[in-house]
Structure formats: structure tokens, C-alpha cells
Batch of 2 targets.
Target 1
Amino acid sequence: MSCLERRIAQGRGDETADLVLRGGRVLDLVTGDMIPGDVAICGDAIVGIGEDYDGREAIDVEGLILVPGFIDTHLHIESSMITPLEFDRCVTPKGITTAICDPHEMANVIGVEGIRYFQKASEHALMDIRIQLSSCVPSTEMETAGARIDAEDLKLLKGHPSGIGLAEFMNYPGIIHRDPEVMDKLRLFDGQHVDGHCPQLSGRDLNAYCSAGIRTEHEATTAEEAREKLQKGMRVLIREGSVSKDLRALQPVLTDLTASYMCLCTDDRNPLDMAEYGHLDYMIRTLMELGCSPLSVYRAAALSAAEAFGLKDRGQIAPGRRADIVALGSLENCDAKLVLCAGKVADEAAFSRRGQVEPVGLDSVRAPTVRPEDFRHESKVERTSVIGIVEGKIITEHLIENIPVKCGDKRPDHARDLARIAVVERHGKNGNIARGFVRGFEIKRGAMASSICHDHHNIVCVGIDYSDMAVSVNRLAEIKGGIVVADGGAVLAEIALPVAGLMSLEPFESVRDGLLELRNAARSLGISLEEPFLQMAFLALPVIPSLKITDHGLVDVDLFQIIS
Amino acid sequence: MSCLERRIAQGRGDETADLVLRGGRVLDLVTGDMIPGDVAICGDAIVGIGEDYDGREAIDVEGLILVPGFIDTHLHIESSMITPLEFDRCVTPKGITTAICDPHEMANVIGVEGIRYFQKASEHALMDIRIQLSSCVPSTEMETAGARIDAEDLKLLKGHPSGIGLAEFMNYPGIIHRDPEVMDKLRLFDGQHVDGHCPQLSGRDLNAYCSAGIRTEHEATTAEEAREKLQKGMRVLIREGSVSKDLRALQPVLTDLTASYMCLCTDDRNPLDMAEYGHLDYMIRTLMELGCSPLSVYRAAALSAAEAFGLKDRGQIAPGRRADIVALGSLENCDAKLVLCAGKVADEAAFSRRGQVEPVGLDSVRAPTVRPEDFRHESKVERTSVIGIVEGKIITEHLIENIPVKCGDKRPDHARDLARIAVVERHGKNGNIARGFVRGFEIKRGAMASSICHDHHNIVCVGIDYSDMAVSVNRLAEIKGGIVVADGGAVLAEIALPVAGLMSLEPFESVRDGLLELRNAARSLGISLEEPFLQMAFLALPVIPSLKITDHGLVDVDLFQIIS
């Protein structure tokens, strides 16, 4: 009997169900009703609710509340610093059963091969990893990336079953100014989903961006911005990453009235946060604590998310949908006691049965050997643009400071919280080194460097001491990428991320422990930020206002040009 | 400049907009906000809201409220008794800008040619007529239709730009019992939209039906039924036809919480009701009168409808969406002062500019000439199944009455409100005549007959007098189909519907006037029902419980078999 016939037969009870969840109650995300009764599952699909069923297998979920699996509507798995399959093992047990990812970090380093790596991983993961095709690699022409993805490459990558359209279109100036290459990419995905990215865009500029047919967006950082985007036909994705934390600002917008048009996403979240706070489950708990109704939050986390991205086969515990189910002790705690992905229980046994995928990009760090004097900032004028960090945001302020020139060099000054920031090209293309100032780390000594450096993933380094900056950057080349903290001419702590300089080959538990050590090392330098490494990495992303730095120099994002 | 570039340029204000609506306010269906400012339109698309725009053309909508065009999510245009293009002229000015129709009445009479006729009409209409492909022609094997549509025919009809999947799958017993032919049709539309129809289905049977992947449904007649269907993942379409009136029963289910998952439809609505009460505009007004919030009702009428059927390009007045706009004097009155379809003003000039489509099926009535004695009900047992009409519903009751046999015939008895009902095969296939009893018309004399006779569209006739029944049926053959009322051996009133015996070639105003005369004639026979003709027509539809009649005989729909 074929799959369709078996589903109908098991739903009707003419045939014994493959699996029955017994004793729980289903939270219906449409009516808000709590529905008692068995949940019958045939293969990967739910085929019955609200009735008694016989099952070849049965799981007791007595006293638990069943909700549909959560959907992370926008993320870069690379930011978890672990491989896609390790990410699966890390977050699926928290109830995340679908992750709509954009592998553009990997693509910026090794191109098409990086996207194919994610596509292959999606074939083995327990959760459903959906791969949007990266739209902006490199994100702009003001940076040196390791690779470039053009419309022809995208054509070759289309058609994989994990596909879900074009990933966040970050080059919003390219859209509103109708760059020919940008228009080609949009036309290639005409009628398909094109995900958005347009921080602080408003008024007629936002009208223009929406006129290109873009209907999902995750860069709203204020309630007002979210509201305008909703009014203009965008589904707004509330983001809570490790750096970009928009949940508190956007929470008031999530009501029973808007919930069908809002979703949740993490964008960039590290394993330390996943371990200490959680993933989407953390967002769900916190939104309820802040006053959102459980229905609005769970709806946003599953049903609305599914609808926003055309995943009509999921988002509700209802017959005919994918059996992505989370059994919770309570709605308030969002404490997953059992997670099913397409009818399979997500436990260690299931994770260990998965096929494996060979890592790629293992030799991607080709940085020049640097000397302390490479970090001098030679200049004759005191008036200086300084990147001002906004904690918990990836947007920055464009500060102006007068900094004295000594021996032709404008030196860092920890008393004024003015640290050197440098970006060193590491793809073996030109050996560029760009230098500037940053305020906000409160770093007093030493240096830290990382090959996670959005989105071009060169090496970004922040420090007070030029020798420590050289130590940390040179160490990164030795360990094939990662994060290093140095002080007194020696490495204090490090983590190796040899997969494209972005991801570890270790289990998430080791990466979490390594990050803890790194965080402590950073604190010993005086750094006060809760998450200094991702915060540093985003200072290099020239599609987020206002002042950023790439290997080409300082970027005024509002002007969309290099200013030094 | 291509369309995409022009839209973006006009949205940004870099180029003058093609058209600007000035001075109104937009009701945003997501946030509920009223947004002042111009609405800029480029070609068929909205490109800007909430800002000032220059336009090559401008329309003053000062003081009006702009809402997105309404979407009738399920209807048979044939039931309006006018051609598709005349239907367009009739209802578009009321604000209906999309009609998702199932041409299965036409298909039951002349098959594939009937569906192609609608597809062609959709290319010329001002509103967007979307054609779902008829799934169940004939609706069952217990009737003689003029044509049959099988999976091979559906393959040929797929791919027209008006397509939107498979139309209402009425053969719900075929689904839950996994009939091979039914499974073939479902597989042919795997991953596409398959519309539902499963009156009174509940429990495990409904689970089975939903397991087939069907996610929209319009046959709920009670709040309880609607709620179960919502819980099981179906979008519920509230229907208010000329006979099936479910709006009052379902209104309590439409709340701010459920509105994103509910839609409106008319299914079968005649031009008399359209003229006297309205179309979806009538439903919108009435739902608000009954206590629904304006936001919930307008959301169901547009945004939710668009999402339910995957029409992502409409449903909100937002940049990048189709310029389907209704300007209202007030939300409460739903009084369209101006309607735009894809950026074109729907006025008489625009209607007269449309291309025309040649009518088809002009010689479809091939009924035998009948004599009065053909309507005798020969029987020996007094115990008789009687169809019991439920006014305002197309479901019926299965009544049991003792009816005396006189001279071998069980005669109608108007004192007990027991009229003869007969169905005469009219496709020239077998000349079948089936006879039975019906209660509920309160007809005292004469007869009425119609070639609208769902869904096989044979001739259905209800009467007290056998001679008048013969007069009315024979007259239908002469006028190539329509509706006839006869009394005293002569025709009292009639309307000719020569297009497949279903639709007039006249303007809707004439059809409305003709129906008024017919209704008065029916009243002169004692008939009390407000809409006797469609009510009679639905007594022949064997996929709606409980007792129906086709040319094969009486159908017990609950048993799904012929019982006499």
C-alpha cells in the first residue's frame, strides 16, 4: 500500500497506526483549544488527533502538552561554531525541528562547495535543515571574500530538496538603486521566496525594497520599525542572537492580532548561549515572561513560521502534517521532554544512527605573517572616525574623536576606551590590512583575533598592544582559523575552527567549554561585553549601519562607501 | 526599463508613479492600523503606501477607507446564471477582485470544453478569475452526467495561468475508503492545492480526509463543525450562498484569534440575491452587524483568503502586491465607491473594453418528451422515504411517511406538503426518469422545472400536477434549458439558460428581472421558500447528506447508495 493510502487508512483507524502518543493534550495553534486524545502517526506524518488509536508502538506522554516543532526562520548555522549535524544534535532536543539557514558564511570562504556541504548535511540531519541560497556573496564590493556566488552559480544550486528560495537579500542599496546584477538574481527567483534584510529602512526606501517582492525580514530592532515592516506586507522575524538581541524591543508588537504574521529566529547564536539560556525555547519562555500570550508565542514559533516560508506541511499538530512534535512539561517553561522529527524520536540513539558528511574547507586560512608594526595607524589628522559598539545590537554608532598623532601613529588609548581594530585579509588574495578605532570593549591590554569576521571572514583583531595583536593573528594561521586571546606576548586561550575557519570538528560540549575559557581570558583583558567575539565579528559587516571595517578600510554604511 | 525596475523606481519616488490614490486611509489587515498617505501604483502593482507620491494620474479618494479587494474563495460562477464575463461585470463593482471558481457545473454537462471556456474567460475578465480543476465529474457513480473528467483530462487542463490546484473534493467517501481512481487524482496534484468538501465529517473520518492533505473546506454548517475542522488544520470558508446560508451559524467562530485561518465564499449565489443583498460585501456587512470586529472580517475576506490559497501576491494594501483595492465610504457599510483590479478602475468603460469569449454548450438539452403519466410513482408499499428540505441549507432530512397507494400510484398530497419530485435525464444518454417525494416547498398546485440540477444537471421537476410537470419539462427542451413555472397546463414564467442549460446570454439585470418574475410565479403556486429554484436544484446533489434524488433514483447519502 502506498504512503497516501496508508496515511488515510491509519487516520481512519482501518489500520493500526505506526506510532501513537498517548495521554497528552494538543495545544491547537488556531483556536487555542487544548485537545485531549491520542496523536496517531503514520511514517513521517500525523494522521489523527482527538481520538483513540491503536499503535504498533506507543509512547506515554501523560500529563504533557504537545505543540508543533519550532521553526528557526533565519540563521547561519556557522555562527554556532559547530558542524550542521552537531548543531542538529545540540538544538533539536530543545524542540527546534526546522532550521531555515543561509550558509553564506561558508559560501564567503569557499563558495559553491560550502553551500553543497550544507545541502548534503540536510540529507542526514534529524531536524529539517532547509537551505536558502545565499544572495549576497560577497555582501558588498567593499570587502575581499574567499569566493563569489553569482546568478549562474545559484542556477546550479537550485533544485535541491532542501531549497527554499533566496536567502536574506542584504544588498538593500543594490535593490533600491536597481543594480543590474541584483536584478538578475531577483528575476532568477521570480515567484519563489526571497528573504529580506533591510535594517532601519523606512518610508519610500522601504516601499521600494518591498516592491521587489520581499516578504520576510529579521533586522527590525525597534517596535516602530517592526510595525512599519508589518504594515508593508513583511512577516517580521523577531531575532535573538548572541549579539543581536531584539526580543525585548519587539515583544510589544507580538500580540494575538499580529502573531500570525510574526516569527522567531536566532540569526547568529553561539553554543555558550545555547547551553546557558537555550535556543528558540529561550525566546519562547522569555516572550511569555514579558507578557505575550502562550498562543501568540507558540503560533509565531511554528504555524506562522511555516506559513511565512510556504512550508504548508507543518506548523500545526493536525492530520496530514509532518510529525514534528514537542512534548512539554508546561507551556510556560517550554521544557521539551520529548521531541519528534518527522515521526522519529530525537534521542542520542537516533543522532548516532545518522549518516556523516565529510568536512570541507579545512585549509582556508591563508593570511600573511604579520608584525607588530603592521597595526600602526599612520595618519596626520587628529579627527578620527571611531566605531561605537551598541551592546546587544550589530548596528554601530559612527563616533568622531580627536586622537593625537605620535611618531606618525595614532595609538590605542585604553583610558579613553579607544582600541585598535584591524582586519587582515586571509583568503590568500591580497594580504590587505585595514586599521581603525573601536570603542565599547573596554579592553585594557593584550588582544583578541578571530577568523569569524562577517561576512567575508577575514581575520578581525581588536587590541591595545600591537605585539599581542600580531601573536593572535599569526596563531590563527597555525590552527587553521578560530579565536585567540593573547596577552604579554603569549596565547592565553584559543579555540580551533578548522572548517572554513568557522566551525569546529568537536562536539558542541567541547566548543562550549572552549568558549567559556576564551570568555574568561577576554575578561582578564578588561573586556566587559558578555559576548565579545561575535560582537567583534560583526564590526566587519558592511551591510549593517552605521560604521564598519573591512580589509578595504572603514565603511560608512549610511553612505555605502569606504571612508578611509 | 523592465517591470521589476519600474516598480522599485516608482516605489522609491525616483520615477513618477503610474497612478496615485490620494487622500484616503489604508486599513492595514495585519496591525489594524489606519495608515494615511498616498497609495502609489505601477502597472498592476502597489508600490508605495504611507508617503506622498507624484502620479501621472491621480484619483481623489478623500475621506474614503481603502481595503484590499475581496476574494471569493469558492464558487461556481454557473450558479449566478450569467456568463463568467457578465459575472465579472456584476460583482467586481462590489469589491470582489478575485474569484476562485470550480467550473464543475459546466464540466458535468460538456466536460473539458466547459473548463476551457472558463479558462478563456479568465483571460479577459477584469477581476482575477482563478480556475480550480474539477475533481469529481460526475460527483458520484449514482447519476448520469453529460461528461466525465478523469485524471488524464486533468493532466491536459493543468498549466493554465488561472490554475490553482484541484477543486472541492466532494467524493469524500472515495477518499476515506481509498478508491483507486480518487487516489490517482490526488497523486496528480501532490504538493498542489486540493480544495475540500466534507459536510458533517468528524472524528476519525475527518482525520482520514485531512490526512490526504486537504486544507480548505466550505461545508461546515455548525460552529462545532467549523471548530473541529480548524483544529484539524483546515482553513474554514464561511459560506453564504442563495440556498446554503451558514454565515449566522459560523459567525461566532470568526474572532480576532481565528480570522487568519478563516475565509468567505458564496459557493452558489443567484443574481437576485446579488442585486437585493450583495455578494461578499453582504457577508462582510452582516458579520460585523452580528458582532465580528471589522479587522477580523476584512482579514478573512482578503488576507487570509489569499494565504489559504497560496496567492501571495495579494490580500494586503502593501508595496509589491497586486493593486486590488476597494475604496469604501465606511467599514461598517462596506459600500464600494471605487474598485481597482490589478491597477485598473472597474467601471463600465473598462468592462466594455474587455475581449469576448464565444459561448459553448448551446445545444445541451437532449431530454425525452415526457407525458403526465411519466410522473406516476408506482409502488405497493405505503412506507415512503421523503426528502425533507432544511431551508437555508443544502443538507436535507430523510423523513419517513406513510403514503397511500391509489390505482398503483402514490400521488402528491399538498395538504401534507408532499410534492412529487422527479429527475429526467437530459444529456441524451438514457432518458432515465426517477421519482420521489419532497416536503418543504408548500407547493399547492402546478409545477416547476429546471435544468440547473446539481451537479449532473439533468432536469429536476417539483409539482403537484403531473400535466404541469410535463409542460414545464418539455418547455425546457424547447428553450435549451433554464427554469420554467407552469400552472393550469400553461407556462406561467420562464427564463432561458442556453449556455449548457445553466447560464443566460443576457445581461445580469435581465436575469435578475426574469428571476423576480419566476419567484412571483412560484409564490402563486403557494411556494413559501425564499429561493425555491436553487433549493430544488440541490435536492439532486448526492454528495450532501442525507436524502437526495438523481436520475438513478433516491440516494441515501449517509449509506452512499441508491435506495429506490
Note: Chain B has a mean pLDDT of 97.
Target 2
Amino acid sequence: MDYNKLTPALAEKLQNLLGEKRFQYGDAVKEAYSHDEMPIYGRFMPEAVCLVESTEEVSAIMKLCHENKIPVTVRGAGTGLVGGCVPIHGGIVISTERMNKILSYDMKNLVVHTQPGVLLCDLAADALAHGLMYPPDPGEKTATVGGNVSTNAGGMRAVKYGVTRDYVLAMTVVLPSGEVMKLGKTVCKTSSGYSLLHLMIGSEGTLGIITELTLKLIPKPVMDVSLILPFQDIATAIASVPAIKLANLDPQSIEFMERDIVDSSAAYTGSAVFPTTVNGHSVGAYILVTLVGDSEAELTLKMDRLGQVAEQTGAYDVLVVWTDGLKKDVWAARSAFLTVIEAETRLLDEMDVVVPVDRIAEFLVYSHDVAEEYGVRLRSFGHAGDGNLHIYCCANDMDEVEFRRRVKAIMDKCYAKCTEFEGQVSGEHSIGHAKKAYLRESVGETAYGLMGAIKKAFDPDGILNPGKVCG
Amino acid sequence: MDYNKLTPALAEKLQNLLGEKRFQYGDAVKEAYSHDEMPIYGRFMPEAVCLVESTEEVSAIMKLCHENKIPVTVRGAGTGLVGGCVPIHGGIVISTERMNKILSYDMKNLVVHTQPGVLLCDLAADALAHGLMYPPDPGEKTATVGGNVSTNAGGMRAVKYGVTRDYVLAMTVVLPSGEVMKLGKTVCKTSSGYSLLHLMIGSEGTLGIITELTLKLIPKPVMDVSLILPFQDIATAIASVPAIKLANLDPQSIEFMERDIVDSSAAYTGSAVFPTTVNGHSVGAYILVTLVGDSEAELTLKMDRLGQVAEQTGAYDVLVVWTDGLKKDVWAARSAFLTVIEAETRLLDEMDVVVPVDRIAEFLVYSHDVAEEYGVRLRSFGHAGDGNLHIYCCANDMDEVEFRRRVKAIMDKCYAKCTEFEGQVSGEHSIGHAKKAYLRESVGETAYGLMGAIKKAFDPDGILNPGKVCG
């Protein structure tokens, strides 16, 4: 695709539209807009940044860029890990960071209307203050909800509540032409034509720009308890998961973590909430389960059943995390894993594969073996309940070019193994421009070709987030 | 679009492929394949019927029809209500009725692999025999699961468990070209490119033919109880629903029914399971709630809370349906509503709208007023928990042309009201060829145009189920 550059005349039009404070052009463009949280995929400066505040502004900008064939990349909080919001073809970045208003709650239909730039942590807290819960709970709490919808983020509570996709009822979208389209309604059932709403979810800002969202909420659970199950090693730990899932406990989360990352987290946060030795056994891996219920009696019954499963599956113990303080510490430790890795690592790359739950251990063993073969340190944690693994390739004392070469070799093998295991290339971090080749290999030419045809139907000139997913 | 007719030479090829028993041609085509369960939308005889048994056969047929530009319409059990499986442009009907095998269970990942022609009732029973539950539970139990996926059927348990869309993990699809494409995997999380899987769900056989499905199952609930809440009228009954939803009971179903349909059902089945007078009050409408739990103690607690809500919202009483026999009778009565209406009615048409839960009563009152104005009898029941209303226009002593004229006038007004209420044209029966104009009006030209462009990307010659949804 051939794109045009932003001319000073067009820049002036945009500045008139947004005012000086909300328009960055040329040297005024802040460096932060050139990358996301995985800078190994490259830094690309946009020609201008538009800090939009309304659907109308986004529509006006898109009309201008459509007429002039200027690429546009939309960006939330920039917490992505695959270069999804990075303007690799230059042009304009539209940042939704100022569209950060929770617009209204509809308590009769249990939904919230919100702008896309609201942070996940703010939405979650605000919903709780209304007695409601927004169930999707990715580890990165400072991502925007718009970004979460664009990547179909999953998170810790997916095993009980599902993923972001399951909570999006409606949205307002600005198309590449500048046209405004409303998709979905404040209702949960529909069989009314092709689901353009579900097509938009997870499309990483390549088909349209989300400017408003209607999200489903649920009543806040009355109480919850977390339980730590320490195991000898990751294989034993993962083997307990199908049994836990079959025990009718309807757990909110089933997370796994290897000892290594738990140790780093303890060193980083200064609080060792996960025991490393239990009844004389050195712990190699953990399963962290959260149960919810309406009463202490109900939770006690569920904990008893989980205790039986734990014993049958070889857990060294079951440690109950009941007090609010301890619960906060445990989950803060869990949520800090990526931060801990980032703090300890100079060169970093990641995989976000999903494999069937019964293949997790096998996949992890395989990945560790491959990484060892190439002399790269692998660190992993993730969502045992749904098979979504976060695997980080880490190095400190290596040349970057050499690191990239080795990581590519590791990933080629691991993604091929993932496909062999009937897994998915990404669970929640999505494709961006970093994982396009692996997506193509995984879904095959026919499906990849259809994705390209859909992109063309929405964006014939290819101006919206070019070079991403299948563009 | 211009289509070709099936020539005797092509018919011979198809007969060679399928054998005599599984190929109907010309006069041998059975009349049943010319309509679904709403024959008011017309009867259209196919030129041939193929009773397929495998993906390979479907692919071979599609290749032949693609080369020769012959329309193909896929059909499950033919229980649809909008003409979705009716070959309005002639050509071939591919029936999946013989692809009725449940292929295997994967107990570690809690999924079932199945052919699309398996009946919903058979899948549900078989899953239960494996200690598992397939949550979607539409009233029509003899529909095929392939049909359910193609219409994104919802049913009674959507309020707790979601709709069919939420249980489809993977599928094998034959494209109009005859190419075979696999979508999705046995995992619940994915952010791997545009969701072609979700695009296929609810696309009514217009984008591809589903030949295999991987469906998510859940552990069978330990026990359940149903409760009947009788109210003075439909407005009072519906007003209780948001309160029930907010009471943290996580009900499996919240159904509503008007007195009129309950009386007919009692007369038809010979068993009056719903009380018509309670504490001296004549009942005008009912809410039927099902709660699930792990123990009698848990259910008793939930029932107590529901009792409080019922009292606060003006229910005359709470009738507990605890015994298996009574439960079966109550739900059999509920599931028989359409059969009862069909048995009593010569001329029938229907709407399957969804409105926000707090607008149900208002919408029903409006519909009844409009129908009365046009002298057509309206009968309704549906899913109060999710706002999905089944509204039937009925007449016995009216000329059919006159009935159609009046029903069109009623529907024009009701669908416009539905759009005004921010509702959806169809909750689970879908669009077919009967509701295309209303879909177009409801979603607008931009969205409808994008649906058309997607159809073109999948099926450039328009041979697959032509004339449906947006074709």
C-alpha cells in the first residue's frame, strides 16, 4: 500500500479540530507513542498524535485521513505486547487516553456505558462501588477497556466467567471512511445477521475504531476465598486441573506458577506469600484457586471438596488465603509477575499460547527444553484453568541480534508444537505485527485469506492500523 | 444472481456419489424438504436432496455445484421458523439428518466432538449420561445442534449459562468452493486474528456448511429446583425480574408466561400444573425460576432469598417444584407452548424480538394493543431473564391474504417499536428470508452493506443458501 505523509496544511486542520493541547505534531510528538511494552518489536514514531475526546472528533479525523490516504493507528494505554498499537507505517496515532469517562450505569439491565479509554482497574473499582462486578480480569490492570475489547483479553477469571468477548453487548465504531456505526444492543441474546460485533472484538483496531462500549456486569459475589496448592513440580500441578474442574466447584480462577517466578516475585515485593517448603517438601510449582460463594457455609463445603481433590492429586497441602490482607498480597504477587520479569530482564520477548488444559505440562516441558538448547532463560506462569500460558524468553548478557535469532528459533519450534497440540497462537495478547507469520501458519491460507478479504471489505484503502493481524 | 438448473448428467454424478438411498431427485424429492415449521413463508421444492454422511461428501457436492453454479441450501431437522433452510431459489438441499453421530468426548478438556445432525435432545441426554451438561436449552429439543449453531439458538438457560455461541469451540466448515476449513480449537481463550468462528455462528448456512462441531460442556449441576411465582398481570410479573437478577441467586432460567397460554397448555396436555387461583386471587401471569446448587442447604438458602424478593415484588405466592415428576410436568408444559399454539391455530406467524429486560412488559402491552387494533390474536411467552419474547400472531377464521396483510402491519409497528427500545429483531430464530427487511431497517445500511460484503468474500457466486440474511 502507498500512503501519503501528513502535510503541514492537514496538520493545521487537525490542530484546529483538537486545539493545541490535544494535538502533537513533528518534534512535539512524545516518544512514548512509538512503542508498546514489548519494544523489541521496534520503535516507530507517528507523524502526529491526536488526543481525542469524542466519537465526532474520531470521525472527523478519519474522514480527513481517508480522503488523503494517511495511515491511522489507534492506541489505548499502550500496554500491549505485540506491537499492535505501534504506527509501523507512520501516519497518525489516535490516542483514546482522554476518552476515560464511565458514562452511565443501567441498573435494571446490569450494564455500563463507557468510553474506551477507561482503565480496567478504574472500571472494576467503579463497578464494585455500584455493587456489581466486571468479570474480565487480565493481569495488566492499567490497560484500557477499549484495548481489552480489541484484543479480546481474557485474564484470571475466564475459567468461571469467560473472556472480554462475553461481556461486550454493544459498541460505537468509527469506520475507516469516518462513518459512525452502532453494533449490538443492551440485550444478551441475538440472532440478527452476521455478528459484526464479534468480528470487531479482537480485531486490534484494524477494522474500525471503538469509541463507546456497553458492557455487561454481574452482581458482585458475596464472598471469595483463595487457596494455594503446592506441588512437587509443574507436571503434577497441572495434572490436578481437570480434577478440580470436574469437582463442581465452579472456581473463579485456576492459576499456575512455577517456583522460579514466585521466588523472584518475593524478592521484588519483599513479601514471601507463597510457601517454598511444605511439610519438609521443597515446592516446585503452585496452583492458585479462587472460589466464590454466598456464605461461609457454602465456601467451607467447597473448600472441603477441593481439599479432597488436592489430596487425591498429590498436593503437599492446601493453604487457605481467607483474610483480605493476605488475599491482596497473594493476588498482587500474581499480578506483578510480568513487572518482576521486566525489572530483571534486559532483553525480553514473549509467547501467549493456549493449549488444551491436559497438554499444558507437556508444552511447558517442551518449551523449557527448547529454550535450554538455545541457551535462553524461559519464565512462565499463566491460566491453568483455560490453558493460556505466558512464556517469556529472557536474557541479560546477550547481544540483541543474537537474542532475536535464538528467540526466533525457539518460537518457530514452540508455535509449531502449539499447532500440533491443537492450540492457539495467542490467548489474549493478540497478533499485532509481531505474530502475523505464526497466525498465518496456524490458521492456514484459506482462513488467513478470508481475514484479508474481511479487512478489505471494511478498509479498502488499508489505512487503519496497517500491517497488523492480516494487513 | 443467475443460477443453473441441475441437469440429469449432474444428478447422475450426485447419485453415484451418494447412492440411490441417499439421493432424491425430481419426483422422488419429498415434500417435507420444501418448507420449515412456518409454512406461511412459502413452500419451495428443491431439485434434489442429498442425505450426506461426511465432510468429504459435502465438499464433493459443493465443488460440483460451485463449478456449475447451482444453489445449495443446507438443512438440519427443519424446525426453523423463518424459512432459513428453505431452497427459495431451487437447487440442491443438503440434509445433515444422517450426520447424527456424537463422535467422542474429551473428559480432560470437557468437550464433545459431534456431527451437526445430532438432535439437541440426544446430545443433552448423552452428555448427562457422561456426568456433563450441554447448557444451551432451546424449547425445540428436536432441532439439530448444527441448526442451533447456525442460528445461535439461546433457550431457557441463557440467563445463567449464555447462548449457543458461548459453547462452540471449534468447527469444520465446507466453503462454497468445496474447500474444507477448520476454525477454532479445543481451548476457551483466543486472540488469534478475526474470529471467523464467531462469524460462522448465527450465519444460517450462508457462509459455509458446518460438518463437525466441538462443543464445550460443563459439570452437571448437583441439584436444581424450580419455583413458580404467580402475579396479578404481566407488568407486575416482569417488574420482579431485575430484582431477581440482582439477588445473587444466579438462576438458571427466568421464564414468563401469560395465563392464556398456560390455560391452553393445560387443556392440551390434560395436566394443570400451573395454579390459576392463588389465595383467592386470579393469576394473570407467571414467572418460572430454576435455581441450581450443590446441596439442599444451599438451595434452601437461595429459595428463602427468592421468597423475600417475590414478596417484595408482589407475587401472590412461591410454589416450589421440587419433585422430579412435577418438575418434568412443569417444564414439559413450558416446552409444549409452541406445539399447543400450532395445534390450535390455522394461520400462524411469529416474532422473536429481544428487548431490554425492563422494557418487556411495555413491549408486550404495545404488541397486544396493536394486534387488537388489527383484530389478530396474539399469544406470547418467553425468556424474561434475557428479554427474548416469542410472540405469535394467530388466526383461524380469516382469509390468508387478509391475515398476511394484517400481520405485516402489526409487525411493521412492533419491529419499529423494538428498534425504538434498542432491541434486536431476533433473539434465536434468526432472519432467514422472512425477516430480511426488518434486519436491514434495524441494523442500518452501513452494517447491512458490510454483511453483504462479507457474504461476497465467502461466497462470490452467491450459491450458498441464496436469498437469506443479506443475500
Note: Residues 113 and 214 of chain B are 5 Å apart (CA to CA).
